Amino acid sequence: MREGADPGRAADVADAMRELARARFLPPEQRAHAHEDRALPLWHSQTGSQPSTVAAMLRLLEVPVGARVLDVGAGSGWTTALLARLVGPDGSVLGLELDPELAAWGAGNVDACDLPWAHVATAAPGTLGRPVPGGWDRILVSAAPRALPTVLVDQLADGGRLVIPVASTMHLVVRRGDLTEVSTHGSYSFVPLR
After folding, report:
1. What is the mean pLDDT of the chain?
2. Which pLDDT does position 8 carry in this prediction?
3. Distances in Å between the alpha carbon of 107 and those of 102, 116, 122?
4. Phi/psi zone of residue 38: left (φ > 0), alpha (ψ -120 to 50 degrees), beta?
5. Strand 156-166's sheet: what is its strand order?
6. Which compartments does it reside in (predicted)?
7. How far apart are CA 5 and CA 130, in angstroms?
8. Burial class (CB in 10 A: 0-12, 13-18, 19+), 31
9. 98-118: per-residue pLDDT in tens?
10. Beta-carbon contacts of residue 64 (< 8 Å; ≥ 6 apart)
């Protein structure tokens, strides 16, 4: 665990991942592999991230109860559901997925979890994120751009956190007023952000 991280939030991540089993968010032919710590294919060249990577990203994000969270590249809906479990019913989570078929399937997966404060929607082509008044408390991105997208940084609330793999390096961005702090946290492999 990173120095200064809240051990209670890390335990919450582990609890959420136990409660919301990965197998529920995989195509039937991949469910036998749900316990394997590797990315698994969904369809249309999209993958479901490996559990250790998802856990690391969620720990970096430090999601508080009641937060408003944007999940970019929601895919199967697993990360959207995990985020919903972390924010609880006083929070809200919007998962965005560019592939309409995958977005519809991910939305159905999240709906089946009885987490009405979380939704998956189809992302608008050519538009990154979805601005909201006051900004998002947390933004999770599960696809890799070549450079840090300022459009997402601009969608953060004051005190907000963005976790995003840029090229092959995990970045944490913390917004403090007009200033941002950026730190890096290891190498990972992700599909490209489109």
Report:
1. 92
2. 58
3. 8, 11, 9
4. beta
5. 118-122, 92-97, 68-72, 136-141, 156-166, 169-176, 179-187
6. Cytoplasm
7. 28
8. middle
9. 999 999 999 999 999 999 999
10. 9, 87, 137
The catalytic position among 49, 76, 92, 142 is 49
Is 49 noted as a catalytic residue in this protein?
Answer: yes
> Rounded to whole angstroms, what are the CA distances from 159 to 4, 26, 156?
16, 34, 8
Q: What are 162-175's pLDDT values in tens digits?
A: 999 999 899 999 99
Spatial distance between the Cα atoms of 63 and 54, rounded to a whole number of angstroms = 13
Tokens of 39: 């990315």
Task: Decide which of 5 and 88 is more confident.
Answer: 88
The first and second tokens of residue 35, run together, are: 């316990």
What are the structural domains of the chain?
Answer: 7-187 (3.40.50.150)
- Rounded Cα gap, residues 152 and 88, in angstroms: 24
Type of residue numbered 138: R
pTM: 0.93
